[in-house]
Amino acid sequence: MSDNKKKKPQKLKARLPRGFVDRSAADIRATEEMVAKIKAVYENYGFDPVETPLFEYTDALGKFLPDQDRPNEGVFSLTDDDDQWMSLRYDLTAPLARHVAENFNDIQLPYRTYRAGYVFRNEKPGPGRFRQFMQFDADVVGAPGVQTDAEMCMMMADTMEALGIPRGDYVIRVNNRKVLDGVLEAIGLGGEENAAQRLTVLRAIDKLDKFGSEGVKLLLGEGRKDESGDFTKGAGLNQDQIYTVLMGVGVVEDTTDTYPASQTYADGIGELMTIETIARSCGYNEDRIKIDPSVVRGLEYYTGPVYEAELTFDVTNEKGEKVVFGSVGGGGRYDGLVSRFMGQPVPATGFSIGVSRLMTALKNLGKLGASEVTEPVLVTVMDGDAEAMGRYQKMTQELRKAGIRAEMYQGNWKKFGNQLKYADRRGCPIAIIQGGDERAAGVVQIKDLIEGKRLSGEIEDNAEWREARVAQETVPEAELVEKVRAMLEAQAEDRRR
């Protein structure tokens, strides 16, 4: 026998790519429940849905990409058959800017739109940090006034409460990039030539809630080494510059009572005061919408007000420490993003909710799972001939037509015990049974599996079990749907008690 005949074909190894997850039915349903509540708030504010594709041309994304042959840092990229680079979107805002610019003559401004979808980051995965995750955005394009930013903050607050997050467990924190830009001008980082260093500074400040002031000082200076030994290069500021930046974001107190002599800074402060006035006049007080100079947002395209939705209750992290849950979404004004395509000013503002992170928060609060989906009623199979199968399938279809989730057993029907094991593992609430005797009498047995499981703990031996006919009723075939519905309603009522 040759060696080739002896060799078994090598099995393909099933493995999930790092930074990606498979989603369960419970996770999908919880997401759908949450997204429906968010959508209802957005619709109430007069927003309409739009959808853009997962792929965009890389230059349209507007991300700072390294100067290399393959623009694949931060984004996942490939070349099209015409040698143009395409990338999976890393957020939902840059694709919206492209959509607006491409369809500008057909769009009614101001354009109020929302969309939910997956985004992709080609970054090092870690605990709670994934390469694919869902965002839910709302944006207004073509509205230049900060009253729109104030309304977006109010909509974020309303969204938190619509999801069941009580007042006091969240706050919408607001700042203005113009305030930060004024501070950066004051330390000599104005002008296009310093754009990359400014971005490094902004991203360092954006880590305040994660690393604290000492960690941010390191990131503003030479850099910071994390617990794994990985080193993140810093912004390279000197001690005086670091102090001015931390003073500008409210981390250290301003002992000199001086402010940057910058019109940009003054404009930013004025806009924040306007947002505060509008919010207060509508009853959104500091416990819901709060001016906070430490809010930065890490993306480079923000040009004015920036805001974050932060959950303020404590959770236990992977180290067993009590920590504030933190940000679940944010956004701001990005007046330059659409303008890149247009050659004319096009104001825009919007925010994004991190769906997976917010869902984790709602689970912590016990706010998900209110809309229950029951597992299907199982129609069991006692005979395998075509005529019998037709009868069982007809019962299943009658239940479905009545709006009752149902399935007919599709495995090896000859071992009836396996069917009941399947129903138990599946969590089926009811099993329908009809053998030859029941068929001849024109009846079916309806077995309440939920009640049966409960009662099984109270019955001590098999003889008592058989005698009790636990949670099982025999009814005429014509009453099948009516009886099943009544049994399901009784089970639902028990769950609510």
TrEMBL record:
- Binding-site positions, L-histidine: D91, L92, T93, R121, Q135, D139, R297, Y301, Y302
Q: Which reaction does it catalyse?
A: tRNA(His) + L-histidine + ATP = L-histidyl-tRNA(His) + AMP + diphosphate + H(+)
Q: This chain belongs to which protein, by name?
A: Histidine--tRNA ligase
Main location class: cytoplasm
Sequence intervals crossing the membrane: none
A cellular-component GO term for this protein: cytoplasm
Annotated localization: Cytoplasm
Q: Which InterPro entries match?
A: aa-tRNA-synth_II, aa-tRNA-synth_II/BPL/LPL, Anticodon-bd, Anticodon-bd_dom_sf, His-tRNA-ligase, HisRS-like_core, HisRS/HisZ, HisRS_anticodon
UniProt KW Aminoacyl-tRNA synthetase keyword: yes
Q: Which UniProt keywords apply?
A: Aminoacyl-tRNA synthetase, ATP-binding, Cytoplasm, Ligase, Nucleotide-binding, Protein biosynthesis
Q: GO biological process: what's one of them?
A: histidyl-tRNA aminoacylation
Q: Where is the Aminoacyl-transfer RNA synthetases class-II family profile domain?
A: 32-376
How it assembles, according to the record, is: Homodimer.
Q: In terms of domain of life, where is this protein from? A: Bacteria
GO terms assigned for molecular function: ATP binding; histidine-tRNA ligase activity
The similarity annotation says: Belongs to the class-II aminoacyl-tRNA synthetase family.
ATP-binding: present as a keyword of the record?
yes
Question: Into which EC class is this enzyme placed?
Answer: ligase
PROSITE patterns membership: AA_TRNA_LIGASE_II
Look up the EC number in the record and give it: 6.1.1.21
